[in-house]
Inverse folding.
């Protein structure tokens, strides 16, 4: 083997993870003194990158072919089918089911948001939402690192708190005008569920899901939320579910959900999913968020039988 | 993020020249993308994004190197600085020409050879799995793959020369 081939072989062993300590030491010494070999090394690493791209594309194609179809299903009671809103707006996946329980309670559930942050190009406004059906927050779509798998799909949302913040949320407004009026005898709830993980910095933050009902239109919710301490009348009702993982559970996904029975007079509902810290003096770390679902649930409660 | 996604492939190429393996490249790119997102207000013009982003990737790669100070299988910080400086002149257009040249060369290979080359570029352990499946030793497969990769690089070099490219 001539010197040039030997050096290329050394570079290849390094790039394919086959080099041992002696190889790396030898490569280091050669690269430090040989400018031409450095160019060879850079060219080899570029070709390695292009090959990796090709290999990843092939893997993606294979996964795409072998992936089972997503189960968007519908069990539709013919009697209630007229009330369904199939395709009312494009961001929603709508499905419904009816669960008769011994003829006593009928429940219809409609999934209005199903978000896995798979769009790598996602760009969100960082302020509080000022219109319906749009996520807002300091969040980017990433492939989780450090051997962590997404809860669903390949990517997750990474919520990046502003420096010094003691809590941070991703939020969205649901406008009830987008949905049909509630039928007589039903009560309507909003259910929010998300999966959380905070593998960064070794801190032990908590996760929250918040649902707040407002009488205002979506464009006025931001002001109403900002003024919430001045006037109770701004908020009709709210619920917050907080979850604090055990220390040995920090590297796990945590599913947190909350549900709010929507009070009469509600026009807009703000949902927020985020991170907070038990110690109010500490700023919060970054957070992974995945598999967020928002559902409207209508429940029919028959009148109580007279005694 | 739009700008990052547009340039992500080229930034990965740059990061690869500074980092010992693909998990490290993935980690550094993710950290770099977060830094870019936080510091986006510092970017004066979109046209300068790639140069700006490379500076951040370089910084994050060196930071990762410092974290792995005790790892004997990584190159020194001093050498990485040298490589980062010399890798800088490669532009997005030149990388695109290289990709095209590589595609041409891959098409000239047989299916089995291509599969071997990709096996080494996929997840860790790809070659070992292939070795088991074909009743060969991993070492002999690596040697074969090494020869194939060398001939691919040679082919890419020739293709670029034919296309009038000026790669070294």
């Amino acid at each position: 083997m001539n010197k040039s081939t030997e050096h290329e072989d050394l570079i290849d062993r390094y790039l394919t993870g086959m080099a041992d300590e002696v190889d790396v030491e030898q490569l280091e010494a050669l690269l430090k003194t040989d400018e031409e070999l450095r160019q060879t090394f850079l060219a080899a690493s570029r070709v390695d990158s292009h090959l990796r791209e090709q290999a990843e594309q092939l893997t993606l194609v294979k996964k795409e072919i072998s992936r089972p179809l997503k189960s968007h299903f519908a069990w539709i009671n013919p009697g209630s089918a007229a009330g369904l809103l199939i395709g009312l707006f494009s961001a929603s996946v709508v499905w419904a089911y009816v669960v008769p329980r011994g003829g006593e309670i009928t429940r219809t559930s409609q999934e209005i948001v199903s978000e896995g942050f798979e769009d790598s190009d996602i760009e969100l406004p960082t302020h509080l939402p000022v219109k319906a059906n749009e996520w807002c927050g300091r969040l980017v779509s990433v492939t989780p690192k450090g051997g962590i798998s997404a809860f669903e799909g390949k990517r997750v949302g990474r919520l990046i708190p502003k420096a010094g913040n003691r809590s941070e949320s991703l939020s969205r407004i649901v406008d009830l005008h987008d949905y049909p009026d509630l039928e007589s005898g039903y009560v309507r709830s909003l259910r929010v569920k998300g999966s959380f993980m905070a593998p960064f910095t070794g801190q032990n933050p908590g996760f929250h899901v918040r649902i707040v009902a407002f009488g205002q239109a979506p464009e006025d919710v931001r002001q109403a939320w900002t003024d919430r301490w001045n006037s109770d009348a701004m908020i009709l009702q709210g619920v917050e579910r907080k979850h604090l993982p055990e220390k040995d559970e920090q590297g796990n996904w945590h599913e947190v959900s909350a549900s709010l029975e929507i009070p009469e007079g509600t026009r807009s509902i703000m949902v927020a999913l985020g991170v907070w810290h038990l110690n109010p003096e500490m700023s919060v770390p970054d957070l992974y968020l995945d598999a967020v679902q928002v559902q409207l649930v209508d429940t029919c409660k028959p009148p109580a039988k007279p005694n | 993020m739009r700008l990052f996604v547009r340039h992500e492939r080229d930034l990965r190429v740059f990061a690869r020249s500074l980092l010992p393996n693909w998990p490290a490249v993935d980690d550094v790119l993710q950290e770099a993308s977060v830094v870019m997102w936080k510091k986006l207000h510092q970017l004066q013009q979109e046209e300068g994004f790639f140069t700006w982003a490379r500076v951040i990737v370089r910084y994050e790669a060196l930071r990762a190197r410092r974290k792995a100070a005790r790892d004997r299988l990584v190159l020194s910080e001093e050498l990485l600085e040298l490589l980062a400086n010399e890798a800088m002149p490669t532009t997005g257009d030149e990388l695109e020409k290289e990709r095209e040249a590589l595609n041409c060369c891959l098409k000239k290979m047989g299916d089995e050879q291509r599969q071997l080359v990709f096996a080494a570029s996929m997840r860790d352990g790809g070659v070992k799995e292939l070795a088991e499946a074909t009743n060969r030793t991993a070492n002999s497969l690596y040697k074969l793959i090494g020869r194939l990769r060398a001939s691919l690089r040679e082919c890419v070099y020739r293709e670029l020369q034919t296309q009038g490219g000026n790669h070294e």
User: Anything to note?
Assistant: The longest strand of chain A covers residues 287-300. Chain A has two domains: 3-66, 81-300.
